[in-house]
Write a structure and sequence with these properties.
With about 400 residues, the chain is an alpha/beta fold. It has helices spanning about 25-30, 50-60, 60-65, 75-85, 100-115, 130-135, 155-160, 185-200, 250-265, 270-280, 285-310, 335-345, 375-395; strands spanning about 35, 95-100, 120-125, 140-150, 150, 170, 200-205, 230-235, 245-250, 315-320, 325-330, 350, 350-355, 365-370. 4'-deoxy-4'-aminopyridoxal-5'-phosphate (PMP) binds near residues 39, 102, 178 and 234.
Length: about 400
């Protein structure tokens, strides 16, 4: 006789869902589809040789590092991270930096420290689905902050912060947002930080794309303006996702809590990879690599924007990202991205519809396109198919 597992499951188990709540399998099951959904760096930017050498160097120290240790992170890596953050205007004591297995782990660690079942989290509408996946495990509820082409709108956010019950936190990707590509301007940043402080609401700033900027200068993170911001960073977009190397910078009051949680979950991050990341980024190498990456991704963005200009029917609008990997396309008033998707798949083109990026997956007029990994010809062909699908849908 087998066990009755249902009787053993936790109360929160129904909240442990996949990367998106929508069923998007139809996209991946469609043969020959051009998929505009990839959120990973382009192959052309993978620093394979540099990482191979950096790993070989780390293995030279194997007798020092094959055991347990450094649960807060390898000190030189924490210093490297602090230097990189300082270069973008955010001064952090390396002692307040905790190395994580990607920023995804940071989302879990901060949830463990802050959220009880029923607590309210304010998220951007739309927001990154992986954050919803992490927060949902802690049985939170959501208030969705409306956005325009400049990110969260302070006037609409304010009542959400002061309503009862008070939210615990705002989760935001203020710079080159996933999924919209938009960036919160300086004036909104200070207003939102002030509001959140006076409402006693934490700010969780997720910043994986901040170093992939197309503007002459980088955008300083929210953390640069307020050291109480809980900041999540990662090497997934600047080196490679499979390294699983990220970090969080947390206020001193929270540091022990998140450090203990990290220890409880996985004791420590991979000590070889941590050393490899230090030596791969040393001597200005990562900065030089990122200069190339920025112009590469800017060109990719331009390929997509030019194709959209050429192929989109009237009434369709899209964002113009100043960095990062994504742009957000909005259909004319009568149409939804969820209705478009099956039509698009018949035209052999796929994307993630807007509903994937909200806590409640209701139909949306918008969808996400990513541009980093596709050849220009594929972007052109995919956009042309998308244009045909939209024209068919709109009749
Ligand atoms: N946050 C955002 C906004 C992201 O786009 C991603 C990657 N898709 C992550 C977190 C997770 O990144 P990591 O690989 O560092 O866990």
């Amino acid at each position: 006789m087998s066990r009755n597992w249902n009787a053993l499951l936790s109360r929160r188990s129904p909240n442990l869902h996949g990367w998106v709540k929508m069923d998007v399998n139809q996209i991946f099951e469609t043969p020959g589809v051009i998929y505009f959904g990839d959120g990973a760096p382009a192959r052309e930017q993978w620093p394979v040789e540099r990482l191979r050498q950096a790993h070989a160097d780390a293995w030279e120290e194997a007798y020092d590092i094959l055991s347990y240790g450094e649960s807060l992170g390898h000190e030189p890596l924490r210093m490297t991270i602090a230097e990189r953050m300082a270069a973008r205007g955010s001064v952090v004591d390396p002692k307040l930096i905790l190395v994580t297995n990607g920023s995804q782990q940071g989302l879990d660690l901060i949830s463990r420290a802050l959220f009880d079942p029923g607590d309210v989290v304010v998220v951007e509408g739309p927001t990154y689905f992986g954050a919803l996946q992490a927060f949902d495990a802690y049985e939170v509820s959501y208030r969705v902050a409306p956005m325009d082409e400049h990110g969260m709108i302070p006037e609409s956010l304010e009542p959400l912060l002061f309503d009862d019950p008070r939210p615990k936190a705002i989760y935001t990707v203020p710079t080159f947002q996933n999924p919209t590509g938009v960036t919160l301007p300086a004036e909104r940043r200070t207003r939102i930080l002030d509001m959140a402080r006076s409402a006693n609401v934490a700010i969780i700033e997720d910043d994986p794309y901040g170093e992939i900027y197309f503007t002459p200068e980088p955008v300083p993170p929210l953390r640069a303006l307020d050291p109480e911001v809980i900041y999540l960073g990662t090497f997934s977009k600047t080196l490679a996702p499979a390294l699983r190397m990220g970090w969080m910078a947390v206020p001193p009051e929270l540091f022990q809590l998140v450090a203990h949680s990290k220890e409880a979950i996985d004791i420590m991050s991979d000590r070889f990879v941590q050393r490899a990341v230090v030596s791969a980024s040393a001597d200005g190498w990562l900065d030089a690599q990122l200069e190339g990456a920025r112009s590469f991704y800017r060109q990719q963005r331009d390929f997509l924007l030019n194709a959209l200009h050429r192929e989109m029917p009237e009434g369709v609008t899209w964002t113009v990202p100043d960095g990062g990997f994504f742009n957000w396309v909005t259909l004319p008033e009568t149409a939804t991205a969820e209705d478009l998707l099956p039509v698009a798949l018949r035209h052999k083109v796929g994307f993630l519809p807007g509903s994937c990026f909200y806590p409640e997956p209701e139909p949306q007029r918008s969808f996400r396109l990513s541009y980093p990994t596709m050849a220009k010809e594929t972007i052109d062909e995919g956009s042309s198919r998308l244009g045909s699908a939209i024209r068919e849908l709109l009749g």
